[in-house]
Amino acid sequence: MKKVKVGINGYGTIGKRTATAVNQQDDMEVVGVTKTRPTYEASVANKLNLPLYVPDEEVAGDFKKAGIKVAGTIKDLYKKADIIVDCTPGEVAEEYKRQYEEAGIKGIFQGGEDHSLTGISFNASANYKESWGAQFSRIVSCNTTGLVRTLYPLDKKYKVQSAFATLIRRSADPNDSKKGPVNAIEPSLKIPTHHGPDVQSIMPWLNIQTMAVKVPTTLMHLHTVMVKLGTEASTEDIIDLWKNTPRVRLVKGKSGIKSSAQIMELAKDLGRPRGDMYEIIVWEDGVKVVGDTLYFYQAVHQESDVIPEIVDCIRSMCKIEEDPSASMKKTDMAMGI
Amino acid sequence: MKKVKVGINGYGTIGKRTATAVNQQDDMEVVGVTKTRPTYEASVANKLNLPLYVPDEEVAGDFKKAGIKVAGTIKDLYKKADIIVDCTPGEVAEEYKRQYEEAGIKGIFQGGEDHSLTGISFNASANYKESWGAQFSRIVSCNTTGLVRTLYPLDKKYKVQSAFATLIRRSADPNDSKKGPVNAIEPSLKIPTHHGPDVQSIMPWLNIQTMAVKVPTTLMHLHTVMVKLGTEASTEDIIDLWKNTPRVRLVKGKSGIKSSAQIMELAKDLGRPRGDMYEIIVWEDGVKVVGDTLYFYQAVHQESDVIPEIVDCIRSMCKIEEDPSASMKKTDMAMGI
Amino acid sequence: MKKVKVGINGYGTIGKRTATAVNQQDDMEVVGVTKTRPTYEASVANKLNLPLYVPDEEVAGDFKKAGIKVAGTIKDLYKKADIIVDCTPGEVAEEYKRQYEEAGIKGIFQGGEDHSLTGISFNASANYKESWGAQFSRIVSCNTTGLVRTLYPLDKKYKVQSAFATLIRRSADPNDSKKGPVNAIEPSLKIPTHHGPDVQSIMPWLNIQTMAVKVPTTLMHLHTVMVKLGTEASTEDIIDLWKNTPRVRLVKGKSGIKSSAQIMELAKDLGRPRGDMYEIIVWEDGVKVVGDTLYFYQAVHQESDVIPEIVDCIRSMCKIEEDPSASMKKTDMAMGI
Amino acid sequence: MKKVKVGINGYGTIGKRTATAVNQQDDMEVVGVTKTRPTYEASVANKLNLPLYVPDEEVAGDFKKAGIKVAGTIKDLYKKADIIVDCTPGEVAEEYKRQYEEAGIKGIFQGGEDHSLTGISFNASANYKESWGAQFSRIVSCNTTGLVRTLYPLDKKYKVQSAFATLIRRSADPNDSKKGPVNAIEPSLKIPTHHGPDVQSIMPWLNIQTMAVKVPTTLMHLHTVMVKLGTEASTEDIIDLWKNTPRVRLVKGKSGIKSSAQIMELAKDLGRPRGDMYEIIVWEDGVKVVGDTLYFYQAVHQESDVIPEIVDCIRSMCKIEEDPSASMKKTDMAMGI
């Protein structure tokens, strides 16, 4: 089988993980990653034999001076790749989309970009087929992915009348030592926050509102969610549903998983690369149905929950596998989920 | 006018502030505070000329050795006081209640105790008269006080159909260097958390549900609140209501108050003793009515928001002032609110 | 007595505190403060009746729109002031120095600026007279002030042969919710760090080396210091020395002051405005002489330790009081130290 | 070759990592681990096929109820093991040592225990042979291991006259969400701290003093170290020495490794299990020789730096490999260092 050739533009938090996950699959492979500065991460790309591309010849000189091997410029990468996973930071996506278009290759963008950039947003369970053969698609953000993972099956089975979520967001990724706050809670004053509409880019019919705060931790986001259900369900029904939902994992406080700290420890214990937790974590002993209302807590590993979605999106866009479930199973098996 | 003689059992976070606030009033005075160990806080009580009482003669010796003056044992304090504000830590309230009863004096307990201890809970705006002449009453917790301050006037004017709040709790007080977490978010898995029922100890008719998480900050609690209103209201109506509500203070993100950090700075800027913010803070640009639903963020200074309530509760229990508004105005004026 | 007219350029962390401290003195007064944006801090300046000056007429409009009263532009302030305390952020000091010069008024700069800007640096105990009548002087940084406060008397009495300090620095001020790190330790790789030379701007003969790290806390800096003494001293001798040193305060771990958290609580307990601790804190039970070497821990309240120095520097530059001790006593008495 | 049978008493932070590292070697294998409560970590031990032993039959019942398979009680483990790596928490080591003695098996204790428990302490580079054939030995703590790794080769080549280190300690491990402080710096007031004498349990001749503070981070400890050298050396000499020292790794701030956060990211980038950094990290651009004095910063991954030492200690105690270098190379190769 001919493997899909994947280029990764931006070898940072998402780019690194995408590289690993793509190379774990048997129907796709990484043909190159890009980096703009000769940091330690670029050195590691060399060690891992990931061909490294840079913006232009001038920058290439800086890499060489730092003893880092460069495979070419990003234009060279375009020639080798069938599809680019764009993991660049904000505000440059428009320009890159133009470049991918000109090069005649496909592109996947991240949740930091607006839905309007691509017109299609992706979640494997909910709308795999919308990206079928598309030139451009967008993986929704880590928080949105988290909400869709639990709400989509819930809505399918119990008709969600309305949902209200508070997102307690980590303030910086673990490898970011610049951003704060060190000791404060910061609300997202624009109400509703963008998370609700972002969920609607996947489930346009869903009545959802969100509020958000930023808190001084690096590990995970945590959501409190209140859902009005359209049909009757018990606490056990809901737990059963999610036990059988892919990429949702139930844990228990009484087994010692009291906080996001122990979730991250569990991911390490399970031998996950980088200690990643790709699944959305729901506390089984924190799920409760009262009357027609369901309450639950879920936690989202912001660095990694979208990675299996990216892999599936590549399959949908490149028309490798028509069946969403089959793609998801294949991805998860290869990634050890 | 004869001043009410107030004893304070436990000179810690709440006890210290109560001492200051009581002595700022012209109709009550502190006749003594208690401390169980000869810490720096006990030394400061000496400096401030607050008579210091200890559990027994043996402990008194430790204080003397540390150069700290002792006025007597707690039994001596009982003889001098008309009312004790009990600021002891958990699990000893039952025993102290018995002692106060035996000594024939009144007692005010804190929100850490159950409503059942006293059968009466107190909030100045909502139910001042329920504690009138009572021997025992209970000030509801900082978070409950915060919720009642904004929800009570809201309910009175716009009929709250249901309320759902997520409490993002600070993990330790600023002077507590033992407790964590340092880097995690911890959900309160028991749903509903105790906060909803605690609000109902003041407003038994209110349909309210709460969830809570603990986060690594010391400064304030922050609430996200969603309220279904029974009668029509605009965003401006709600803001106007709270502008005219005592002990609620509106701030704006666009004036630079982006987080709990700047609220604490504002309290210092206003010259508040200890940098305390007695009011519940609502972000004006974080209030929004969408259809029949109101969303807002509020912040609670856990160390101090109950202090003016304690003062008013003393007035109600000791029958000094019959009119709740008059008591509140007197308290706030004296405390510089 | 004619009071010295003090203008404060920059009403932030240092500016606010300088305003309060200057107005507590009987021989100087604040004639105005400046602010560049109409934030909540500007509103508070209005409430406190501090005349507020802005960069230019255009900006004045923004203030008026926000309902904040403006007294004029900074040029107007220059006409009213004898001396400006410059509390502006970095990189604009050169330009402001030029403006003060042109206006024919004196100026005090902060430790963020280089010694070369003024050619004179100030610490009240160590070199009060160097700034006598000077047009420009510089208050050394909070950390340097801390080191000079303990090392100067030590050197005077016991001849410091060499000193080595590690500065464990808070990462952001309490009211700053942007800066991190949230969860990391960051070394200052340039060795020696600038703190050693900065101490030498006051004590040029001192053999001192420093290293520094940044840690995720907002409260205080903490120093570990190792000093080789030239003459014999016991642990008790050293403690006695500092007990009699102004603006140095001894505390004990065994009295419950285990960390910077309890120091800040002590400052609040003492009724200090804003909860400030102007003194350098030395742990009495953390001082130890082993052979010819002294080890100790000290803590520095970065927001406030320089404030009494600023007041004394004004007296020296404006020739109000010739005797350093007399000025320090006057300042400390007025500030409640 | 017959493999050494290793039991691990306590399957927590150190126990888990020891299990992985031992099973990566070809001359030893894990025959069982112990756990006292049926937590998620016990479930994972099951998944990893590590035979799980419990204190007694009663506790075994709790495990079965939680669906966790138990292989027997700890007495059963004693029968199968040649050596126990004791990773139990403090205060029980004496009793366990007695049990191992009675069972006629060897035991390795951790740095939380005193040197006097075993009379022998271990570091592979410095004193591998002292544990040769011993029944009991002790791996020195993470911080001590860190100091010995850099100071031992330094002393060998350049004669360390004296060393002074400040240890800036993480306050809790990443999976511990109970301990604080959240926002404070706490000094270790007992001077000298125990770290100096602990280094001397390996290098008794070394003149070393230490001070320590605890800070709100979970990631790594960081040391500032000042060393007086007995013979001349340049900054480059020192860097060269450590470049060729096993289990010491040089990094550069200018490659983007500014803090402990990026070190942990590097460990993940390198594909290390659990994101562990077994090496002591020295900042190359933070090393400086001034006159006869060397200054440097080093960082210690408290969860993992002792793991390769444990493996080597097993080899020395069980007489598998006489040559320290050969053992270290074998260990490091197997662990991917």
CATH superfamily of the largest domain in chain A: NAD(P)-binding Rossmann-like Domain
Radius of gyration of chain A: 20 Å
Largest interface: A-B, 40 and 40 residues
CATH topology description of the largest domain in chain A: Rossmann fold
List how many beta strands of chain A DSSP finds.
Answer: 16
CATH level-two architecture of the largest domain in chain A: 3-Layer(aba) Sandwich
CATH class of the largest domain in chain A: Alpha Beta
Portion of residues within helices of chain A? 25-40%
Mean pLDDT of chain A: 97
Give the termini distance of chain A in whole angstroms.
24 Å
Domain count of chain A: the total is 2
- The string of secondary-structure elements of chain A, in order, is EHEHEHEHEHEHEHEHEEHEEHEHEEEHH
Major sheet size, sense and barrel closure of chain A:
8 strands, parallel
Q: What's the quaternary structure here? A: homotetramer
The number of helices of chain A is 13
Beta-strand content estimate of chain A: 15-25%
Biggest sheet of chain A: strands side by side, in what order?
4-3-2-1-5-6-8-7
Low-confidence stretches of chain A: none
Structural class of chain A: alpha/beta
Mass-distribution shape of chain A? globular
